[in-house]
Write a structure and sequence with these properties.
- The complex is a heterodimer of chains A (474) and B (197).
- Chain A is an all-alpha fold and 474 residues long.
- Chain A has 19 helices and four strands.
- In chain A, β1 and β2 form a beta hairpin.
- In chain A, α13 runs antiparallel to α16 and α13 runs antiparallel to α18.
- The two termini of chain A are 36 Å apart.
- Chain B has a domain of 36 residues.
- Chain B starts with a helix and ends in a 12-residue tail after the last helix.
- The interface between A and B is medium-sized, with 39 and 23 residues.
């Protein structure tokens, strides 16, 4: 008797796949004229997908537990889909203005998100590799979408070649793990490493897999591609790049380190410490001399990933919860920041230089206040959300005995405060040479203000958010 | 069996040397194809006939032909490459020595690599291809579908990045071609005879 798997387990992924294909067919036959229809349909399908997550049975698995769902993965998936919705919602005007309104854009985005959802649930190295490939391949194409620009082509080529090497490194590491364990399933790897935790080849495989995922997280010393790709990609794609894949890759890293490779703590903790300190240092110091906002926030991303990594070093639940809390706050704040970069235009040209935002406080006071709040939050100034993220991370580090990590984190966040404050200075104190020709539509304005509002009132819902993270992660 | 193994591996090594030493880049690619074909032969000897077929189809059929196209279309200047070889000689030597050391290390610690846990059972005496097929469509069904998804994304990407709709480009519109009627395209004009002069 064949027992059929409960297909509700993959319901969100299946739905996303089907809707991606249907949108592709609709787009191909509607002759590329009604991009707004496709955008609306994309948003509808994202929401139906969020609803379908509630039908997924808890703690269910398919394919010999290669694909596992829990309350935690379902919540992360919901958050990823919500972020996708925000990214689609905020970028429609930008895409129309920049002639990027091809119907393939939302379709590729949906396939990329499909890869991320599978990444979050994957409990098997093969599933992990295939899903990482799916999400990256769609993103390579999205980065290359602006064919005319030289920077865009350079960015996509760099991202494609380096990203393929990173995927190959992950695959090589997986093959080493398989060669000693004889299986790619996380549970079996853990059972194997319970007995022989000092296996050299297993550790080598682990190191290679960590390097590949650190590339996807753009953590130093695997960060070289980040500024170029973020600068060359269309701003709407950069908005996606800084939020969604980072969250999915963090979940993958946490799954790997705390489940199958928990016995190799001596191997991976020093690696994560080095990655964390290097990321914070490079992210904070290199950003100082950047004039381009997109490059600046690329380095800011690297630094923030460094802080997230501190939470992983603690090897306890407190640290990991702090990492996720930090990641949530970071993704929401950067989404607001990149929505702001999307609206900077002058004479049909997208802008991204710091000098271009000079004097915004006079023409758009509310916008300037919102951006100020986001900057202060990213810098970690007390009443805003970013401060609490850093607070929990550093507390977890000190409690686990990594005082030096917390101290270096504080030092580097002080350094990085310089360039966040530089942006505020440019908005309030500098004089503008010519007026910006905003194409500020209500959606983008709403998202920026909403994110700033979330950062502002973080104190009010911090308790319930922490309670929620405690509830889903156990 | 052993004889064939040494024959194939000798040809692989020799053609690999020929790939990097031949003056004409087209000859290099052809030697590369020779190396691939012989590697496929070694796979057949090892009993992995599916891998041998894949090697022939993917590497010889697609990758090597792609190489040939690139070499022929780009008109690569060999002197420049020779110059670059001198420039990167020592760093290349360094990497090569590391790889050689790794090879020695792994050969001296074969027991570390060899997997003692899982022995593949082949009770029904099925062929390699049959076994891979039976596992891909059952146990790894979802991964298989996902890889199909990757191919779809690659196809969409290739079309998005290369299909241009510019004015002035002549292209076929199938529906227009089918819609054409005799009345739209042919006009019958009757000439009067006296006008011919």
């Amino acid at each position: 008797m064949i027992d059929l798997p409960n297909l509700n387990t993959i319901l969100p992924e299946f739905f996303l796949f089907i809707s991606g294909i249907l949108l592709l067919v609709y787009g191909a036959f509607s002759n590329n004229k009604n991009f707004s229809n496709i955008n609306i349909l994309t948003i509808i399908s994202i929401f139906i997908c969020i609803i379908s997550i509630s039908f997924v049975p808890d703690n269910s698995s398919i394919a010999n537990s290669a694909f596992v769902n829990s309350l935690f993965t379902n919540s992360i998936k919901t958050f990823i889909l919500l972020l996708t919705f925000l990214a689609v919602y905020v970028s429609s005007n930008y895409l129309n203005k920049n002639q990027l309104n091809v119907f393939e854009y939302p379709v590729l985005l949906l396939f990329s998100v499909l890869g991320m959802l599978v990444m979050v649930s994957s409990n098997d190295l093969i599933f992990l590799y295939i899903s990482i490939e799916l999400q990256s391949l769609a993103l390579y194409v999205l980065v290359a979408l602006r064919r005319g620009s030289i920077k865009g082509s350079e960015a996509s080529l760099k991202y494609f070649i380096l990203g393929s090497i990173a995927s190959a490194v992950i695959l090589y590491g997986s093959s080493m793990v398989y060669s000693v364990v004889g299986s790619t399933n996380y549970q079996i790897i853990k059972e194997f490493s319970d007995q022989s935790y000092d296996n050299l080849i297993l550790s080598l495989g682990l190191v290679l897999i960590i390097s590949g995922i650190a590339f996807k997280l753009s953590a130093a010393p695997f960060h070289m591609w980040t500024p170029d790709v973020y600068e060359g990609a269309p701003s709407s794609v950069t908005t996606i790049l800084v939020t969604l894949p980072k969250l999915a890759a963090l979940v993958v890293l946490v799954n790997l380190l705390t489940n199958p490779f928990i016995n190799q703590v001596e191997t991976w903790v020093p690696i994560i410490i080095i990655i964390s300190i290097l990321s914070m240092a490079i992210g904070s110091i290199s950003a100082i001399k950047q004039d381009n906002l997109k490059r600046l926030f690329a380095f800011s991303t690297i630094a923030n990933i460094g802080y997230v990594m501190i939470g992983l070093v603690c090897v306890n639940d407190e640290g990991i919860k702090a990492s996720f809390l930090y990641m949530f706050i970071y993704t929401l704040a950067t989404l607001g920041v990149f929505s702001f970069i999307m609206i900077l235009r002058r004479e049909d040209r997208q802008l991204a230089a710091i000098s271009d935002i000079a004097g915004i406080s006079k023409s758009k006071p509310l916008l300037a206040v919102a951006i100020t709040i986001l900057m202060l939050s990213l810098a970690g100034i007390p009443p805003f959300g970013g401060f609490f993220g850093k607070l929990f991370i550093f507390t977890a580090a000190i409690e686990s005995g990594y005082l030096y990590l917390a101290i270096s984190g504080v030092i580097f966040s002080v350094i990085s405060a310089f360039y966040y404050l530089k942006i505020i200075k440019a908005m309030y104190l500098d004089e503008s040479s010519e007026d910006l020709n905003y194409n500020l539509d209500k959606k983008q304005f709403f998202i920026i203000v909403f994110m700033a509002f979330l950062m502002l009132i973080f104190v009010l819902y911090a308790d319930s958010l922490i309670f929620f993270i405690n509830y889903i992660y156990n | 069996m052993n004889l064939f193994f040494f024959l194939f591996s000798a040809i692989i090594v020799l053609s690999a040397i020929a790939v990097i030493s031949s003056r004409n880049p087209v000859h290099s690619v052809l030697f590369l194809i020779l190396a691939f074909v012989n590697a496929a032969g070694i796979f057949v000897l090892a009993g992995a006939e599916f891998l041998a077929m894949i090697l022939l189809i993917v590497y010889v059929g697609a990758v090597a032909v792609l190489f040939l196209f690139v070499v022929m279309m780009l008109n690569i200047n060999l002197e420049e490459i020779k110059f670059q070889v001198k420039k990167y000689f020592f760093s290349g030597l360094f990497v090569g020595l590391i790889l050689l050391a790794e090879l020695f290390f792994s050969f001296s610690n074969l027991d570390l690599i060899r997997n003692k846990n899982v022995m593949v059972t082949n009770s029904k005496n099925l062929t390699n291809t049959h076994q891979i097929g039976s596992i891909i469509y059952t146990e790894y069904f979802f991964v298989f579908q996902l890889s199909g998804c990757i191919l779809l994304v690659a196809m969409i990407g290739a079309i998005v990045l290369t299909l241009r709709k510019r004015p002035g480009v002549l292209r076929q519109t199938v529906s227009k071609q089918i819609d054409r009627k005799k009345e739209d395209s042919i006009e019958i004009i009757k000439f009067k005879n006296n006008n011919a002069n």
